[in-house]
Amino acid sequence: MNWLQLLSHKRPGETKTVAHDQTRSRFEQDYDRIIFSHPFRKLQDKTQVFPLPEDDFVHTRLTHSLEVSVVGRSLAKIAGNYLLEKYPELQEEGYSVNDFGGIVGAACLAHDLGNPPFGHSGEDSISSFFLTNKKGQFFKEKVTSKEWQDLITFEGNAQGLRILNSKGNGGLKLTYATLGAFTKYPISSSCEKEEGRKSQKKFGYYQCNANLFKEMADEMELASNGESKWCRHPLAFLVEAADDICYHIIDLEDGCRLGLVPFETVKELLAEIIGDSYSEEKVQKIASQHERLGTLRAMAIGQLIQECSEAFIANEEAMLTGSFDTDLTSTIPSAKAMDKIIKLSIDKIYRSKLVLEKEAGGYEVIDNLIDAFATSVYAKYFDQPLPKHKSILRLLPEEYEVQLQGVNSVYDALQIVIDFISGLTDSHAVRLYKTIKGYRLPV
Q1: Within a domain: 236
Q2: Structural domain span for residue 138
Q3: CATH number at residue 366
Q4: 170-190 burial code (b ≥16 CB/10 A, e <16)
Q5: Sign of the dihedral through C-alpha 201, 424, 356, 267
Q6: Same domain membership, residue 146 and residue 161
Q7: pLDDT digits (tens, 9 = 90+) for 145-157
Q8: How far apart are the C-alpha atoms of 184 and 107, rounded to whole Å?
Q9: Which of 267, 315, 340, 443 sits a CA distance of 20 to 30 A from 210?
Q10: Contact yes or no for 13/4 (Cβ under 8 A)
Q11: pLDDT tens digits, one per residue of 109-164
Q12: What is the 3-state secondary structure (H, E, C) of 102-121?
C-alpha cells in the first residue's frame, strides 16, 4: 500500500478528480458533515457505560466520541509530521499534518455512530432476536446465508459504515480516506477469520455494502487478505488507539466519580502510566479530588498519546504490507498498566449493579421493539398485515416508511428495521417500548 492512494480525498460515486484544497480540505468537510448529522446528535442520549447519569461528569456516547476525536487528531498529527518527512511526495501533492488530523479526527468522531441504545446489550439483543427467538428464526429461510450471517451477528462498526453511506442520513459521502480510517475490521460477516489478526476480530461491512467496500479498497489500493477481506488502512490503527485510550482511562475516571473505584486506586494506576512525570507533592497541592482526578487523567492520556504515536511510527512500514495486525496499545510501555485498568474496570465498573441493571433492561426493550417492527414490516410488505401490524408501523418515522416502499427483498426490509431500532436514543427506545406494550398511553 502507498500513502498517496491511502490519502484519497475522492468520495464514493465521484468520477471527476477534485484538487486538494488546504483552505478547507475535504477531510475537514468530513468532520463538519458528521458534526451536523442527525445520527451524531443522537449520541447525546446513548449510553456509554452508565445509564442516564445524573453526575454531569459521566460520559455519554457523544462526549466520548468528541474526546476520542481530540486524542485521535493529536495522534495523527504526530504521525503525519513523521510521514511528511519520510515521503516528500506527500508534501508535493499539498498534504499537511492537518490532513492527517482531519482524517483521523473525523473517523474518530464517527466511530460509534452505529451503536444501538444500551450499548453492548443492545447489540446482543438484535443478534439474539434472529438467533434464538422463534419469530426471528422465521426469517432464516427468507434471506441468503450471507445475509443471515449479518442478521445474527449485529455489529456496530458495520452499522456505522451503513449509516455513513445511507441516502437516508443526508448522504454524508465521506472521503475514501476517512471511510478507510473508520473501518477497523475490513472484512464481511461471512468471512472465515484468521486467529491473531486484530482486524478480523469483528466485521466491518454488511452484504448490502459489499460493492461499496470493494470500491473503497480498490481506490485506496488496500492490500487484499483473501476473498472479501483486506488489510487495514494504517490510520485505522490510530482511530482504534484513540478509542482504547479514552475508553479505558475515562471509564475509570467515571467509575471513581460515581464511587465504584477508590480515588487512591485510580491514582496508583494512572501514576504507573504517567511515570517519571508524576509528582505526589504536586497532586496534593490541587484543591479538590475532582480536580486531582482530572489532572491525572490528562497527564495519563498525554503519555499514552506519545507512546502510541511512537508505536505507529515504529510499525508503519509493516502496516503498509499488512504484516502488522494488532492494537497499538498492547505494544506500548504502558501496556501492563492498561491491562490492570481493564481488569479492574471489568470487575468494579462493567459488572456493577448500575451497569447490569441497564443491560438487563436493554435486552428486554430492544428484543420487544425489533420483534414488533420486524414482524409488522414483513406482514405489510411480504404477507397480509393485521390491524396490530398496521398500528405499530404508524409509529415509524416517515423517512423509514419511504425507504420501505422501495424494498424488494426481506433482507433489505429487515436492515431498514435495524436502522430504525439501532438509531433510537435510550430514552426514545424506552418510551416506544412502553407505548407498544400499553404501559404508556396518551391522556
Answers
A1: no
A2: 118-153+358-443
A3: 1.10.3550.10
A4: eebbbbbbbbbbbbbbbbbbb
A5: positive
A6: no
A7: 999 999 999 999 9
A8: 10
A9: 315
A10: no
A11: 999 999 999 888 888 899 999 999 999 999 999 999 999 999 999 999 999 999 99
A12: HHHHHHHHHCCCCCCCCHHH
Tell me: do 66 and 213 sit in the same domain. Answer: yes
Q: Are residues 302 and 429 in the same domain?
A: no
Split into its structural domains, the chain has a count of: 3
Which cell numbers hold the place of 27?
A: 477531510
8-59 confidence digits (pLDDT tens): 999 988 877 666 666 778 999 999 999 999 999 999 888 766 655 555 556 7
Hey, what long-range contacts does 353-361 have (CB within 8 A, 24 or more apart)? 354/50, 354/51, 354/258, 354/260, 355/49, 355/50, 355/51, 357/51, 358/47, 358/50, 358/51, 358/118, 358/119, 358/121, 359/118, 359/119, 359/120, 359/121, 360/121, 361/51, 361/118
| Residues 308 and 428 both lie in one domain | no
DSSP state of 350: I
242 neighbors 75 (Cβ within 8 angstroms): yes
| 333 and 405 inside one domain | no
Shared domain check, 149 and 70: no
